[in-house]
DNA sequence: CTGAAAGCGCTAACAC
DNA sequence: GTGTTAGCGCTTTCAG
C-alpha cells in the first residue's frame, strides 16, 4: 500500500531505543528487560503497530501463508474445500492465497510459481485435468516446498494427499443402481488421466463384477473438458442413445457432469429415471431440490480442506517434507434421491 | 519460499556488471546501451530469472496486485464475480488476492487491513451483512487506497461502484408476479441495512404501486443471516402461513434465500406455485433443473467482476481516487420458470 | 553509459 | 540488556 504504516523505527525513535531492541521486545526475546518490553508493547499498541508482512517475508523467506491451486473456484466442491482450508489456516495464523488454474496446465504452472515466488510456506493443490507433466510440482517439492494434494492428486509426486474413498464411493453408487435392477450402466467421467477418474472407474468395475454384470466398454465415456461445454455432454448422450444396447442407467463421475447430463436429458425430452437412472458425484447443496431429486455421492469437502490444511501446516512446521507421507482417505456419502428409483421388473 | 531463486546479484556477478546496471537493463532503461541490454536480457532468460515480487513490493510500496473482499466464496454469485475479476486482472498483469469475511464485520476488518498491509494496489469489496460501521473502508480510502465496491456497495464512502439495476430488477420480478395474477406478494430479504435490500425493496414497492396493490407491511420479512440458517427461513415461512391474509406469492431478494425457501416449502409439504408462487434472485446455473424450475433474476456476475476490476485498475493507474467516481449499473435478467406460473383466476 | 551507496522494514549476528 | 551493523532483493539518486 502507498498507505504509510507505523514501523519499528517510529517506535524506536519515539522511545529513544534502537530498532533491534524494539524488534526483540516485540517478539518477547529473553534478552530484553521486562520494563522495556512493557514500554514497547504498550506504545506499539497505542500507535496500532503491525509488522509489515512484506518486510518480514523478504527477511525470513517465509510468509506464514499457504497457497491453494484449484482448477476452478466457482465449483461447489472446490469452494467448500477452500472454506475448510481457511478455517484451519485462520486458526493457526496462516493466510491463504487462492489461485485457479481454470483447468489448464499453463494456468497451473503460473499459479504454483507465482505462489512459490510469493514465499508461501506451502501449497495445497488439486491438479487440472489438462495436466500430464507434473514437473512444476515435482521441482518445487524437491526443492523443499511442502505440497499437499487433495482430490485430484498426483501419485508420481511423493507427497501428502487427502482424497475421498473413490473406489468405495463409485462402487456404492454403482451397486445402488444394480440393486435397483439397472443392468446396463454407462460410466461418464472427465479426463481419463485424472486420479479421480481412474479410481472411480475401478469402483464401477468392482460393482459390476460383484453383481455378475459383464463389462461393456461401449458404456465408458470421457468428457475431457469435464462437462464444461454443453456439446461435449450432449454428444456423449446422443451416442448412448444411438447404441444398440442402450444403457438404462448412468454413473457420473463429477459434479459438473451430473448437472450437465441432467440438463441434456431434459433438453432432449428424456425422463429420469424412466429413460435413464442417474447416480453422480455432486457437492451442490440443492440436489434434493432438483427435478428429479438426485441420487448423489457427496464428498466431505469442508473436512477434506481441513485435513489437507492440517497436514500441510504440520509439514511446514516440522520441515520434514521428504519422508512418511500421510494419505488421508475420507468416506463419501451416498444420498439417495428419485433419480435412481428402483425399476419395476414386471415390464 | 525457502526456495532459492536467481537474483539480480547473480546476474551482475556472472556478467561482471553492477546490480544497478542489471536492474536498469532489465527494465529497459534508456541509459543502458543496447549491447548491455541484450547481454543481460539474454542471460536472465537462460537462468530463468524472475524478479522477487516481495522485494519489489517492499521497495515500491505497491505490488501489482488487487485484493478482493467478499462475504463468501462458496456462493454462485460471488464466485462468478471473482472469475470476472480474475479475467481482467490477468489480462492487465495484476494478481488477485481473495479473502472472505464470512459475513462478519470483524472478518471484513481483518481482510481489508490484511490486504492493505500486503500492499495491494487497490481493493474490490462487497460488504458483509453484519457491517454497519464502514470506517475500515473509509480510512483506507481516505489514505489513498483505491476501492471499488460491487453489488453490496456502501453509499457513504465516496468511491466507484458497480451494481445491478436493483430497483428495476425487483420491479420486474414483482410485476411479473402481478401480471400472473398474484396479489398478496411477500417480500423476503436479508439484512435490512444492506444496499441491495433497500433497493430491491424499492423496486418491489414500485411494482405494487403501479399495479394498484396496497402495501401491507405484514408481507415484509428480513432474514438477518441471509438464509444461511435453515431455522431463520423456516420461521419466516411459518409466520407467513399463520397470517390471516396468507400471501400467494413470494419475492426473494437473494440467492440463498431463494433456495432455502424452496427447501422449506418442500419440507412442509407446500406446492410451488400452487401454494406460493416464487420469484427470486439467483445466480445458480441450475435453477432450470429444479422442481419446479425457478423464475429468477440473474445478475451478470462475471461482467460485474470485469467492470469492477477495470474501474479499479483504471483508478490505480491514474491515481485519481478522489473525484469523479463512476457508478456502473448493469441490468439483471428475468428468467421465467414454472415457479411463477400464471394463476388461473377462475377459482 | 555504468557503478556505488542508500534505503524500503525487519531480523540477527556480533559487539559493548 | 541494549546498540551497531549487515543484509534479504530490489530501485534509485548521485557520482563518475
From TrEMBL, chains A, B:
Pfam families: LacI (PF00356), Peripla_BP_3 (PF13377). The keyword Transcription regulation applies. The keyword Transcription applies. InterPro entries: HTH_LacI, LacI/GalR-like_sensor, Lambda_DNA-bd_dom_sf, Peripla_BP_I. Keywords: DNA-binding, Transcription, Transcription regulation. GO terms for molecular function: DNA binding. CDD domains: HTH_LacI (cd01392), PBP1_LacI_sugar_binding-like (cd06267). SUPFAM superfamilies: lambda repressor-like DNA-binding domains (SSF47413), Periplasmic binding protein-like I (SSF53822). Residues 6-60 form the HTH lacI-type domain. Gene3D superfamilies: 3.40.50.2300, lambda repressor-like DNA-binding domains. This is LacI family DNA-binding transcriptional regulator. It comes from Danxiaibacter flavus.
Amino acid at each position: 500500500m502507498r498507505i504509510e504504516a507505523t514501523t519499528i523505527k517510529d517506535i524506536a525513535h519515539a522511545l529513544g531505543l534502537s530498532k533491534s531492541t524494539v524488534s526483540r521486545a516485540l517478539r518477547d526475546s529473553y534478552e530484553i528487560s521486562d520494563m522495556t518490553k512493557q514500554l514497547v508493547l504498550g506504545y506499539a499498541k497505542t500507535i496500532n503497530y503491525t509488522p509489515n508482512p512484506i518486510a518480514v517475508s523478504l527477511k525470513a523467506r517465509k510468509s506464514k501463508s499457504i497457497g491453494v491451486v484449484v482448477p476452478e473456484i466457482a465449483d461447489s466442491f472446490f469452494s467448500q474445500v477452500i472454506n475448510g482450508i481457511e478455517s484451519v489456516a485462520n486458526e493457526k495464523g496462516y493466510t491463504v492465497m487462492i489461485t485457479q488454474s481454470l483447468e489448464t496446465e499453463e494456468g497451473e504452472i503460473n499459479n504454483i510459481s507465482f505462489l512459490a515466488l510469493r514465499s508461501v510456506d506451502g501449497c495445497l493443490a488439486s491438479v487440472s485435468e489438462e495436466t500430464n507433466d507434473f514437473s512444476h510440482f515435482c521441482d518445487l517439492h524437491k526443492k523443499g516446498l511442502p505440497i499437499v494434494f487433495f482430490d485430484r492428486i498426483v501419485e508420481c509426486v511423493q507427497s501428502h494427499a487427502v482424497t475421498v474413498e473413490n473406489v468405495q464411493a463409485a462402487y456404492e453408487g454403482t451397486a445402488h443402481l444394480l440393486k435397483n435392477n439397472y443392468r446396463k450402466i454407462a460410466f461418464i467421467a472427465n479426463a481419463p488421466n485424472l486420479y479421480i477418474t481412474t479410481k472411480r472407474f475401478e469402483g464401477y468395475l468392482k460393482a459390476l463384477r460383484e453383481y455378475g454384470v459383464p463389462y461393456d466398454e461401449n458404456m465408458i465415456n470421457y468428457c475431457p473438458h469435464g462437462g464444461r461445454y454443453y456439446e461435449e455432454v450432449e454428444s456423449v448422450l446422443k451416442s448412448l442413445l444411438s447404441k444398440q444396447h442402450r444403457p438404462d442407467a448412468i454413473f457420473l463421475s463429477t459434479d459438473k457432469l451430473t448437472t450437465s447430463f441432467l440438463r441434456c436429458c431434459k433438453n432432449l425430452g428424456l425422463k429420469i429415471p424412466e429413460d435413464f437412472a442417474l447416480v453422480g458425484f455432486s457437492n451442490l447443496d440443492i440436489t434434493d431440490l432438483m427435478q428429479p431429486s438426485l441420487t448423489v455421492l457427496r464428498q466431505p469437502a469442508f473436512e477434506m480442506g481441513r485435513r489437507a490444511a492440517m497436514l500441510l501446516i504440520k509439514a511446514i512446521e516440522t520441515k520434514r517434507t521428504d519422508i512418511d507421507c500421510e494419505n488421508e482417505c475420507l468416506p463419501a456419502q451416498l444420498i439417495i434421491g428419485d433419480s435412481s428409483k428402483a425399476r419395476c421388473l414386471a415390464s
